[in-house]
Write a structure and sequence with these properties.
single chain, 3-stranded mixed sheet, disordered N terminus, about 230 residues, alpha/beta
Length: about 230
Amino acid sequence: MRKIGLGGLLILLLTGWPLTAARAGGCPAVPGLAPPRLEFQLLAPRMRLHHDVDLFGLPRVADHMERPPRGWALQGLTVARARLTLTARWRQMALPGGGGVCVWLDSVKAVMGVPEQQVYIAADYPAGSCEYNAILRHERLHVGINARTTAAFAAPMRTLLWQTILDNRPLLIRRDHVDPATVIGRLQDGVRPELARLQSVLRVRNGVIDTPEAYRRQQLQAGCHRWRMR
């Protein structure tokens, strides 16, 4: 059996395996094939502070979901996006007569979340000022919401991914070669609805502390006097 590294994925080719007859238009059975393995990791992200973007530039930061109420300026933000990174190892065998390639997943590694949550505080407010500290407290609330919500989705995401692995073993690819993106894409398709649900829940829960009432309450409690709108 020879090993081929490709795009960060390890593909193991089937050679000399005892196979039963292939079903019509399908993949052959492989007696004694070990069950697949799933390694699932939930990241506990660190918070990374940025203080180099001003009030004008904050709305242009990508992948954030904070929307200030009408008449309020975006003074800080936390980048939050649901993410599940997948890598895989598999065995494959070409079917005779150009019937495609059969793929048996051996193992899948999933990493849920991001290693860092990027937090921005408008550069217009000096570090350590009342306004800076008030914004930082607000953004820490967003960081906590993102971490708790993502953690709550980890178990159902793992269950769904495991079922997707089983449902696609074997996976018949109707081409004469295997594109790693096709295999990973099939796994991603299985969990895409749950990722979309996670993103939706994140948006709703973060929105709770971005209402006009929440902004007024937080600024009143902070007692700061040098807020800027632009």
